[in-house]
């Protein structure tokens, strides 16, 4: 263990924030797991806690292994993973899983492990890697729209179209992040406007077709999306059951909270351990606890931006922003849903909510950020060693 700790590199603040989030997650997960025991009808709170611990342990193994990979390798890796992601997404979508008549094809079962793998979480990271690669390679070139359509937007569009029928919120988040990274990477603004218009048009046609031909699109979640938006503005408490219970949990938590494990609403919120875990956190730890948790995520955002600005390559900068910012964006969306600012999206709270692939892919993304940060540290060390060998080099570099 000591040897492992000595070999840890990259931004120490990011390591500390991730560790704090992971350690803190045990408290709300253990508390909210009583609801899982009641809903699923099997297992124990200790069993769910141990499962969460194993997922986090594997997650930190993923971080450690990933941050030891030179980040330049992720450029080529993205081109290899895009076809694999498309195959996995297609298999996931067409396996035909439904819940209450709605498409629930978001997971594939990992053989011999008994854990579901949500393929869209892998796809979101791979898409950002692929986008960063394209923008970095064409940074100094004039970008032609037709060429970029074939090399960039068709692969990304295919990924989004395969995610859309079963998971609109994830599709929307990836699409928004892609446009943001494209803008930061110098992709022409007029072309971004065209892609945005095409995306809105495709979504509109998809919704219209699903409504016009319900039998053909019977397994989509169109009705679920519409109901969530309508319920968001619907004052009817019964139609907005989860959101109302979340508000009640937040209100009863007041400033200091009821204390760890003393939540009442966890017994009534169906998604108290995942989508609405932030409401349970505020109920038990108060507004103070909820605010401090938000500060941790904002601190993570700050350090991600710092790493990106200090990176010496365009690919490294875009890679850090592309895989790092969505983590904080997802956290803020989860919090906004819990406090009633957004309709229900089904997005978990990164590293806090229960789940497997969400934790693993978040850790994979963090590992990539730390890999870029570690490369920067290595460059700084080499310069320092060079300056130590020849003190006059400092003066030479200054004059030069």
> What is the domain total for the residues?
1
Q: What low-confidence regions span 5 or more consecutive residues with pLDDT below 50? A: 99-103, 394-400
What is the percentage of strand-forming residues?
under 5%
Q: What is the terminal-to-terminal distance? A: 44 Å
Instruction: Describe the strand arrangement of the main beta sheet, using strand numbers.
Output: 1-2
Assembly type of the chains comes to single chain
Q: What's the count of strands?
A: 4
User: Order of SSEs, N→C?
Assistant: HHHHEEEEHHHHHHHHHH
> Per the principal axes of the C-alpha atoms, what is the gross shape?
globular
State the share of residues found in helices, binned by percent.
Answer: over 70%
Output the number of helix runs. 14
């Amino acid at each position: 263990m000591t040897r492992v700790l000595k070999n840890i590199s990259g931004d120490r603040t990011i390591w500390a924030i991730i560790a704090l989030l992971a350690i803190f997650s045990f408290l709300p997960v253990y508390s909210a797991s009583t609801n899982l025991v009641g809903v699923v009808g099997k297992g124990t709170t200790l069993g769910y806690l141990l499962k969460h611990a194993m997922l986090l342990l594997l997650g930190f193994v993923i971080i450690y292994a990933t941050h030891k990979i030179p980040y330049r390798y992720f450029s080529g890796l993205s081109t290899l993973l895009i076809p694999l992601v498309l195959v996995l997404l297609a298999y996931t979508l067409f396996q035909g899983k439904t819940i209450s008549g709605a498409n629930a094809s978001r997971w594939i079962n990992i053989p011999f492990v008994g854990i579901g793998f949500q393929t869209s979480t892998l796809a979101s990271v791979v898409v950002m890697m692929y986008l960063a690669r394209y923008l970095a390679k064409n940074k100094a070139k004039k970008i032609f729209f037709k060429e970029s359509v074939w090399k960039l937007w068709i692969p990304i569009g295919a990924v989004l179209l395969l995610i859309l029928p079963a998971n609109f919120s994830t599709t929307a988040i990836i699409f928004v992040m892609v446009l943001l990274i494209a803008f930061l990477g110098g992709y022409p603004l007029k072309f971004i406007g065209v892609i945005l218009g095409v995306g809105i048009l495709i979504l509109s046609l998809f919704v219209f077709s699903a409504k016009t031909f319900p039998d053909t699109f019977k397994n989509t979640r169109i009705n679920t999306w519409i109901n969530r938006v309508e319920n968001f503005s619907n004052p009817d408490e019964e139609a907005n059951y989860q959101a109302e219970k979340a508000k009640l949990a937040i209100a009863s938590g007041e400033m200091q909270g009821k204390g760890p494990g003393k939540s009442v609403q966890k017994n009534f919120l169906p998604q108290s351990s995942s989508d609405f875990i932030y409401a349970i956190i505020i109920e038990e730890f108060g507004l103070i606890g909820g605010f401090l948790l938000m500060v941790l995520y904002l601190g993570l955002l700050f350090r991600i931006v710092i790493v990106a600005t200090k990176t010496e390559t365009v690919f490294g900068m875009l890679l850090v922003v592309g895989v790092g910012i969505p983590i904080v964006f997802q956290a803020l969306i989860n919090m906004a849903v819990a406090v009633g600012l957004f309709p229900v999206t089904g997005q978990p709270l990164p590293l806090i909510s229960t789940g497997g692939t969400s934790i693993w892919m978040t850790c994979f993304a963090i590992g990539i950020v730390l890999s870029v940060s570690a490369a920067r540290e290595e460059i700084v060390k080499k310069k320092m060693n060079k300056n130590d060998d020849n003190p006059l080099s400092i003066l030479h570099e200054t004059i030069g």
